[in-house]
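Exercise: predict the fold of this chain.
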Amino acid sequence: MLLAFHFVVTVGIMAFLIWLYTYGGGIKTLVFTDVFQTFCMFAALILIIYNVIDALHLTIPQAITAVINDSRSAVFEFENIRSTQWFWKQFVSGAFIVIVMTGLDQDMMQKEFNVQNIKRGAKRYVHLWFCLYSCKPFVFVFRCVIVAFSHPKRLVFAC
């Protein structure tokens, strides 16, 4: 193989480059890179949604109406405790995911270390919550339009 590198060598080189990048720019470099990466992914999500809706020959209001009217687009389930969508099951599992990801994700830990006081840290988490939950409707619509697009006859809009 022309470009076959040993796994340990590749990991070592990448770790060195990450260290060099972080050492040169500090924690603000990591934060900037994450913000830029998030912006690019969110822009791609919006473009994909638009293109799939266009491929389905729907207008945006028609797509929104189709998502709202579909029976499987209910976000919260309060009645059936055995359902995987039961609200409290989703709430508790989401809380544990946040705890685990913050503890295991090196970038998240470094961002927490970059906070000067508790008040600014709380403000950052409120901003993070707002950003995450303002993106969720787009992810939900993305799921719905992808399912509709992947339907063989593309007649049923179901998510």
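Check your answer against the key: Residues 155-159 have pLDDT under 50 and may be disordered.
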